[in-house]
Amino acid sequence: MLADLVDTLLQANFWIAVLRIATPLVLGTLGVLLCERAGVLNLGIEGIMVAGAFVGWFAAYQGAGLWGGVLAAALVGALLGGLHGVLTVVLALSQHVSGLGITLFATSLSYYAYRVGFPKVSTPPTIEPFTAIGAPFDAIPVVGPILAAQTPLALLAFALVPAIGWLLYRTPAGLALRMVGENPAAAESAGIPVAATRIAAIAAGSALMGIAGSFLTLAAFNAFFFNMVNGRGWVCVALVVFASWRPGKALLGALLFAGFDAMQLRLQQGAGSEVPYQLWLMLPYLLSILALVLVARRAAYPQALMKPYRKGER
Amino acid sequence: MRLERRETASRTAMLVAPLVAVAVTLAACALLVAWAGAPVGRTYGLLFDGAFGSRFALTETLTRATPLMLTGLAAAVAFRARFWNIGAEGQLYLGALAAVAVGGLHEGSGFDAPLPLLFAGMVAAGMAAGATLVAGPALLRNRFGVDEVVTTLLMNFVVLLFVSWMLDGPMKDPTAMGWPQSVALDPELEFARLLEKSRVHAGLLWAVGLAVLVWAVQRFTTWGFEWRAVGASPEAARFVGVPVGRVMLRAALLSGALAGLAGVSEVAGRTGYVTLDMSPGYGYAGIVIAMLAALHPLAVVGAAVFVAGMLVGADSMSREVAVPSYIADVIVSVSLLAMLVATMLAQYRIRRR
Question: Which domains does chain A have, with CATH numbers?
Answer without folding.
Answer: 2-296 (1.10.3470)
